[in-house]
Structure formats: C-alpha cells, structure tokens
Here is the input.
Amino acid sequence: MLVIGLTGGIGSGKSTIADALAARGAGVIDTDVIARELTEPGQPALGEIAATFGADLIRSDGRLDRDALRALVFSDADARTRLEGILHPRIKDRMLERLAALDAPYAVLVIPLLFETNQHTLVDRVLVVDVPETVQRERVQRRSGLTHSEVDRIVASQISRAERLTRADDILDNSGDLPALLAQAERIHCSYIELAGNAKDRQIR
Here is the structure.
C-alpha cells in the first residue's frame, strides 16, 4: 500500500486535509487522535503520566488536564522529553497496527512531528500542508486562545518551515481560502490514486 506522511506546523490545516482525503477514500490514521485515546481514563499511559508529573494533572472526573500538561511540557524541555518517552512508542505501535489492518487505496499517516521523530522513514511520500508563519500564529491563537509566548514555544519545538518544505515530496498551500485548499486536496488525491495503481501494477507483474 502507498503510505503518505501528512505533516505541517501547528495550525497549518492538517486536519482539514486529512478529512478531505478520508472523504475521498483514503485510509487516514491520525496520531493526535491516537494520543487522545491513549490518555483516556483507565489507559496505562495516563497512569504513567500522573506518576511522572503529578496527580494534579488528573482532573476530578479522572481525565487528563491537557491544558496544564501542555503548559508544563512547552515550558520545560526535559518534561517534554519524558512525556514523549511515555507516549511516542505507544502511538507508533498503535499506528502501525492500524496501518497493517487498513483496506484502502492508499494510507495517510497524520504525524505532526514526522521529521522530528524520524517517522518519515515509515512512509513513501511526505505531504506538507504549508502556511506562512504569521498566518499560522494568527490561526492558532484564534482557535485555541494561546498566548503569543505559548505559540512561540510550540512553534520552536518543531523543525523550521524552510526545512519542512525542503524535505517534502508534495506541498499544499493553505494561505488562501478553504475552496482553494480543497481543490488542491482533490488534485493530490488523484495523484496518489494513480501512484497507488502504478505500484499495484508493478507488484502484479
């Protein structure tokens, strides 16, 4: 199966593209969704997070206080490294399990830290959703209510826009409106269908 790694900076529009490709028949596996599943009440990862960072990160309803955890790990590089050590291996294992069970023309792995975690080695092509940093920051603040400094810390934890673009196989420009982005999604979907078909033909031969 053709495997696409979908990535981009925070607020770039990865989820919009993932949804658009899924609607067209792609098999989409989103690592952010997996991360949320792994930190639900009763999951071993949640207990390990509480043991590592303190029980005060668990709300009275037994759920993870995601805002508090985010504030902690983006202000403390060591804390972020420890959290990644808890979550990233589990996320990767579950992602690969779902990929192995997938039945679709092609697969899309949505991995925000694709290059930072060296998971680009797991995919055939890298699709980057790109947006100018000024637009990115405005969208993130409008959507999440984060402060300028919080957004700065999150952006700083990711590779630079320039490096991401240099390492991409395919790029979608999300500096315009939604119809323009969805038109690009349609074109890239058709391209991936063709690539997947060519790969399948070579295997049959």
About this structure: Strands lie at 2-7, 27-30, 106-110, 125-130, 170-173.
